[in-house]
Automatic annotation (TrEMBL):
Stored SUPFAM superfamilies: Terpenoid synthases
GO CC terms: cytoplasm
InterPro entries, per the entry: Isoprenoid_synthase_dom_sf (IPR008949), Polyprenyl_synt (IPR000092), Polyprenyl_synt_CS (IPR033749), Prenyl_diphosphate_synthase (IPR053378)
Biological process according to GO: terpenoid biosynthetic process
Alphabetical UniProt keywords: Isoprene biosynthesis, Magnesium, Metal-binding, Transferase
Lineage: Bacteria, Pseudomonadati, Pseudomonadota, Alphaproteobacteria, Acetobacterales
Cofactor(s) listed in the protein's UniProt record: Mg(2+)
A single MF term (Gene Ontology): prenyltransferase activity
Organism listed in the record: Acetobacter peroxydans
Name of this chain's protein: Farnesyl-diphosphate synthase
PROSITE patterns named in the record: POLYPRENYL_SYNTHASE_1, POLYPRENYL_SYNTHASE_2
Length: 310
């Protein structure tokens, strides 16, 4: 008799191998798009552009960009258009990391195994690079090279702004800073991370549906998928902050505990946090049912976010 657990494990392992290949291929496309959109210059602003490129190119999992191009592929969007949206979300994500690492925020000297941007350059340049990356991200979406329809471009910009501003990522960062040294209840921790981390991941999944002019149901399902994946991703991050080494993470480990932050691990324990991440993964996979086999890599990604080691 077949062992169902063994069958699932084999399926997840096989899917993980295919996902790794697909992520690498799409990351190369996204990297090329970013390189093209952030050309180096030799003028008086060369240091700014160098810092923007340093913060954005040559590192990271490209998870958000991968979500954008992979969900767009469900609707046969051209790779060039999808790569532009992916590049914009990766630029905005990079800006958030540059600013998070500043001494006034998380004060971290390492990012992706290299000196953080303010350590490689200086604080003023890092602030300006983050500012410029944020505005460049919206400039890309506003271009008719991203989509011929002004309505689609406005929809992308509106959803992006909602996910990244005070009602999303930036608001989450503020709540996170205010929560240092205080014991937050689970509901508040969930809300904090839904804003700080989850909103941008949710948008990344939804952006492909916007770009592909999907039906309201298709868009809602991908938005729900992104919400669940974003929550699972943050829980996995909390687990890694407790269990992984700095070498594995490419950044300082154990900083949340040292800063007195409330985390899923602190509230649920490692086993409880892993169970909640697994529940969210199954929820995300259920959202993909109408897309059939075309969404297999997105299903694999839902497993990947809770099994990764960095």
């Amino acid at each position: 008799m077949t062992n169902p657990t063994h069958t699932l494990s084999s399926r997840v392992a096989e899917g993980g191998a295919l996902l790794k290949q697909d992520m690498a291929a799409r990351a190369a496309v996204i990297e090329s798009a970013i390189d093209h959109l952030l050309p180096p210059t030799t003028g008086g602003d060369a240091r700014l552009w160098d810092a923007m490129r340093y913060a954005t190119l040559g590192g990271g999992k490209r998870l958000r960009g991968y979500l954008a191009v992979t969900t767009a592929a469900l609707f046969d969007v051209s790779e060039t258009q999808a790569a532009r949206v992916a590049a914009s979300v990766e630029m905005l994500h990079a800006y958030s990391l540059v600013h998070d690492d500043l001494p006034a925020m998380d004060d971290d000297d390492m990012r992706r195994g290299q000196p953080s941007t303010h350590r490689k350059f200086d604080e003023a340049t890092a602030i300006l690079a983050g500012d410029a990356l944020q505005t460049k991200a919206f400039e890309i979406l506003a271009s008719n090279k991203t989509h011929a329809s002004a309505e689609v471009r406005i929809d992308l910009i509106a959803a992006f702004a909602d996910a990244s501003g005070a009602a999303g990522m930036v608001g989450g960062q503020m709540i996170d800073m205010e929560g240092e040294g205080r014991a937050l209840p689970l509901a508040e921790v969930s809300h904090l991370h839904a804003l700080k981390t989850g909103c941008l991941i949710r948008y990344s999944a939804e952006s492909g549906a916007i770009l592909g002019q999907a039906t309201p149901d298709q868009r809602a399902r991908l938005r729900s998928y992104g919400t669940a994946v974003g929550a699972a991703f943050q829980i996995a991050d909390d687990i890694l902050d407790t269990t992984a080494t700095a070498e594995e993470l490419g950044k300082t480990a154990g900083k949340d505990e040292a800063a007195g932050k409330s985390t899923f691990v602190a509230l649920l324990g490692i086993d409880g946090a892993r169970k909640e991440a697994a529940r969210l993964t199954e929820q995300a996979i259920a959202d993909l049912a109408p897309f059939g086999a075309r969404a297999d890599r997105l299903r694999d990604l839902a497993y990947y976010v809770i099994e990764r080691r960095n």
